[in-house]
Amino acid sequence: MINLTKNIVLYTILIFLMIISIGPFLWLISTAFKSSTENIFQYPPVFIPENPTFSNFIDVWKQIPFPAYIVNSFTVSFFIVILNLILSSLAAYPLARMTFKGKNFFFHAVLATIMIPFQVIMIPVYLMVLRLNLVDSYSNIAGYIGLVLPFAVNAFGIFFLRQAFLAIPKELEEAAIIDGCNVFDIWLKIFIPLTKPALATLAVFTFAGAWSEFLWPSIVLTKQEMYTLPVGLNHLQGVFSANWRYIAAGAVISIIPILVFFLMLQKYFISGAMQGAVKE
Asked: I want to staple 83 with a disulfide (CB 3.0 to 4.6 A). Which of 7, 131, 152, 227 is the partner?
């Protein structure tokens, strides 16, 4: 009886948290499909549209250059993901498998940066990017570089891959050394293939963060044709300040690439998350 009561309370809490989590998302989808004749602010709220329509998606696609925004976001996100996987794994390998003076100090110093919000270092980073001419007012390529470099590596990725590397048996590394592999070969041919699930998990987290990043692009971008999708959606809100159906439709479109990317790597995601959680 005690276990039954405990399970009821537990599942009630979980259902309540689920409703809080997915409620705004369901409201967003509902608003995107509502026609202009429906009141989206009526009370009590109606989640199922009376006359579902795709016209909001078609109209918003025509009103602003969505394809250009999507290409910009995909380009920036792609390079951020690639650089994070390469640089994080290169930094994680010595912290996990090598012995050198100050190893623990450097590891804890890296972890300490997780506690520093990006807003704290945003001004000095912006000044550095500006003085290096890595803004879109100088050239489009420089603009892409200025968007990518501040997020090319992060402490979470280093920590996550370090934990994954720690789970690999020492015997594999020793066998590779006997076969004549150097440190780089061991990293590339042994550790990278064996940690594909962890790399895929990190790629999903990094892609989701890069795709939805708004603050940094909104600061460094000056050309509308260089806008990423979140910045473009903010511009959409300025153009259609009262048309929340268009804004909701644009937001739904922006979510689709993240869902597709997650579904592509879904089979690696759970095992990768577990692999990266292994303790030393």
From this structure: 152
- 231 and 262, same domain (yes or no): yes
Which among 243, 214, 228, 254 is positioned nearest to 59, based on CA atoms?
243
For residue 60, the Cα-to-chain-centroid distance in whole angstroms is 25
What digits encode the pLDDT tens for the residues 203-252? 989 998 999 899 999 899 888 888 998 888 877 665 555 578 888 888 88
Do residues 193 and 136 share a domain? yes
Looking at 39-169, list the stretches that DSSP marks H as alpha helix, in order from N- to C-terminal side.
55-63, 66-97, 103-112, 118-131, 140-148, 155-166
Q: Is 223 left (phi over 0), alpha (psi -120 to 50) or beta?
A: beta
Q: Which amino acid is at 27?
A: W
Question: How many domains would you assign to the chain?
Answer: 2
At what angle are helices 55-63 and 244-264 packed, to 10 degrees? 90
0.70 surpassed by pTM: yes
Boundaries of domain holding 100:
54-275
Judge if 16 and 138 occupy the same domain.
no
Phi, psi of 198 (to 5 degrees): -65, -40
Chain centroid to Cα 30, Å, comes to 25
Is 280 part of any domain? no
Tell whether 261 and 150 lie within a shared domain.
Answer: yes
Which of 32, 53, 74 delimits the end of a domain? 53
Cα atoms in the 13 Å half-sphere on the side-chain side of 24: 4
Is residue 173 a part of any domain in this protein? yes
